[in-house]
Amino acid sequence: MAVLRRVKRPRVDIEVERVSKYFKKEESLSTELADVSDSQVSINAIKAMEAPEFFNYVESRTIDLLPVDRKLEDNNRFPPNFVGIYSKVRLMRSKIITPVDTVGCASLPLTLNEKYGILKDQIKPLHYRLQLLVALMLSAQTKDETNAIAMNNLMDYCMNNIGIKEGITLEALLQIEEKQLDTLIHPVGFHRKKAAYIKRAMPMLQEEFGGDVPTTIEGFNSLPGVGNKIGFLALQKSWGIVAGIGVDVHVDRLSKMWRWVDAKKCKTPEHTRKALEEWVPRELWNEINPLLVGFGQVICPSRGKRCDLCLANDICNNVDRKLVKLRNFNESPASLRGDHSQLLTHLQHTLVASGSAAPRIKKEETE
After folding, report:
1. Residue 229 appears among annotated catalytic residues
2. What pLDDT band is residue 327 in, cutting at 50, 70 and 90?
3. Are 190 and 251 members of one domain?
4. How does the average pLDDT of the chain come out, rounded?
5. Is residue 289 a part of any domain in this protein?
6. What angle do CA 74, 79, 85 make, to 5 degrees?
């Protein structure tokens, strides 16, 4: 078993300029950084790990959803509604299965490999890291379910046309012509650009990174079509390094909607990332992405939000009161992405316990 050397980090005093409208201007803020990102890990030790040890290691350092009973302690750095909303979103996420949980970029390689007969403990970590990177590169402006179709096309072609039993590997992607790659990933948005990016990136991985993915955010950002969002998410699940918050459209939209960041100043997801990192506790930097992405996919999408099912509808500043009043638990499950049956049951029990009239849930919704 590879042994990783953990070094106790000293207290670090940093100067943080508070720019959020929630905070008064202060000269400085002394903060002790609990840096979960880099306890002097040995990249070579990680590269030497077999699948079971690798996945256990990464998952222990990048827990997607922390326990619901793990309380957030409020402090004056947080926006006023942060603890209340975040805690309720965490509870909701524990009761719904969303696309990001099954076919999101981190889980998609596992789902695909299992479909093709390769179990989790049989996947070479080297191949998982590459498949994760490719999935992330394809994911921009694309739903997880659509991204899964493109990745399945690619997996099938690599195995059955090129004859590589491991599926998507660096060797396989180097062999595929760009035009053929574009055809395979056609379902995703901007497929032509993404095909070109992937074809340019693969030789770079081979020549500059020893046939593996980069180990730093600078390395990821050197690849065509890769920015901080992809880089931070790839670092987390490739090496167990949490160096920044991965901000996609859901995290960006919800953070602005709840006024966790100043929408006037945060014109891009990158602006939002920097604003969030000023005050979001480091221990939440990994969790906040899958937490808000899943919530944004199922309960609070940009169109067709379900305030009637949201546990935070009593404190959300953007709640649609008409939807809450017209609450209908008997609506077809097909109206939502993912599985929300446990949430519906929880809502019914909560309403009964509070003495409110709980709409009856159809049997098929809880099966």
Report:
1. no
2. confident
3. no
4. 86
5. yes
6. 75
Write down the pLDDT at residue 350.
82
Catalytic residue among 194, 199, 229, 237: 237
Both 203 and 306 in a single domain?
Answer: no
Q: Is residue 259 part of a domain?
A: yes
Segment 277-310, tens digit of pLDDT = 999 999 999 999 999 999 999 999 999 999 999 9
Q: What is the pLDDT of residues 11-56, one digit of tens each?
A: 333 333 333 333 333 332 222 333 444 445 689 999 999 999 999 9
Number of domains in the chain: 2
Show Cβ contacts of residue 54 under 8 Å, excluding neighbours closer than 6 positions: 46, 125, 128
Single-letter code of the amino acid located at 207: E
**Residue 339: beta bridge partners?**
97
How much is the CA Rg of the chain, to the nearest whole Å?
22
Domain that holds residue 78: 74-101+245-348
Retrieve residue 216's tokens: 């730093």
